[in-house]
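To close the chapter, one final illustration. This time we ask the reader to focus less on the individual chains and more on the assembly as a whole: which components sit near each other, and how the overall shape emerges from the parts.
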Amino acid sequence: MDFTIPRHVEVIVRRVRQFLDEEVIPIEAQLLRASRDLSVEALQALRAKAKSAHLWAPTMPKEWGGMALNIQEIVPVFEEAGRSLLGPMAIHCAAPDEGNMHLLRHWANPEQTERYLAPLARGETFSAFSMTEPPPGAGSDPRMIRTRATRDGGDWIINGHKWLTTYGEIADFFIIMARTDPDAHPYQGCTQFLAPRDTPGIKILRDVPVMGAKDFGGHVEIVYEDLRLPDSAILGEEGQGFMLAQSRLGPARLTHCMRWTGIAQRALEIATDYASQREAFGSALSGHQSLQWMLADSEMELKMGRLLIQEAAWRLAQGEQARVETSVAKVQVSEIVSRVLDRCVQICGGRGISRDLPLSTWYEKARAFRIYDGASEVHRMVVARDVIKRYGAGSQN
Ligand SMILES: Cc1cc2nc3c(=O)[nH]c(=O)nc-3n(C[C@H](O)[C@H](O)[C@H](O)COP(=O)(O)OP(=O)(O)OC[C@H]3O[C@@H](n4cnc5c(N)ncnc54)[C@H](O)[C@@H]3O)c2cc1C
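The assembled structure is written out below.
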């Protein structure tokens, strides 16, 4: 496996670092100090600066202003952008738009590409992926999808209840997962539909309040009530919903890992800086061995997490599905990030809890990472199935 970072990517990484230091982190500090949320206008102003700096949409083709980087090349770029929660939004590689662009790039037909993907890639619109349902619908087990799409002449009528649809407050269109054939195998009877926001029948009930500060674009609860869509709204083909979901969620899990590694790395730098300056019991905090071990464990775990990300990215770049490797990386990196942030808050004491530093916000926000795009237990189940298949009864004969 070759994890060499090409020269042109190293240059991009340095430019992303400079952009974050000069343009993004100062705004992050202002918002934190004022306990304010990012507005769409402020984000678009920041994005205009990113575009002028030629730091835009790392995964998208150059014709839409993108940087045309492959899955391996984005690993260090996304980590660098991820040093602030605002960084990926600024250079257009944040969830859910980044995953949705990936999905549309592979499955949208020419008309859908023109209508949905091109404006999204240019940063003129926002998108949402609407799959999870509140109980008794589908959550961890996507086979439980209850949202139904039924044929009506040449159209489809969708009825269902979704929640936690990220960017639902601002999305210009929704990608909706619905069951089209209740008699098919549970993994075959679903289809994805593209629905513009203003289509009658899309009822946003509320933004679901979540842990910590409000997230940009919200995580909304929606009822789809007699939502009528033409056949041309289908993304891919009828019955391909799960295959498309898998092709979106696999790489999307990995890009979450890349971005969160950036946050954890910056947290470690902030905590080390504090520990080197702050004195207690006759020396700098960094002189106390128990604290040194926290720094060492964080550094070692981040290195392990990066290697897991790189392995999965390398396999994806070779055309493999890398299902198990992606699950391994998702479990490990999400748990590593949680542990690193926890240690960094502890090292910074009261300052770590305060909003003077971003650590407390990151600590709160990172908790969801162990749940969204597959809870740790679900990914452990994927890994365990593979282990049992390879080493289980009879395999050693
Ligand atoms: C901040 C945030 C943003 C999100 N954004 C989106 C979005 O944009 N679009 C979207 O469609 N969804 C989104 N989600 C939903 C997310 O993908 C689901 O929350 C996740 O898949 C888990 O589903 P659930 O919440 O229904 O948990 P449940 O299915 O109710 O599971 C609850 C818990 O049970 C445990 N569990 C589940 N299965 C197993 C098992 N096999 N073995 C052992 N334990 C198990 C896990 O600990 C899990 O956390 C988002 C969620 C959050 C928190």
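The pocket of flavin-adenine dinucleotide is lined by residues 96, 129-132, 139-140, 164-166, 210, 219, 368, 371-375, 377-378, 381 (CB under 6 Å). DSSP finds twelve helices and ten strands in the chain. With these observations in hand, you are ready for the problems at the end of the chapter.
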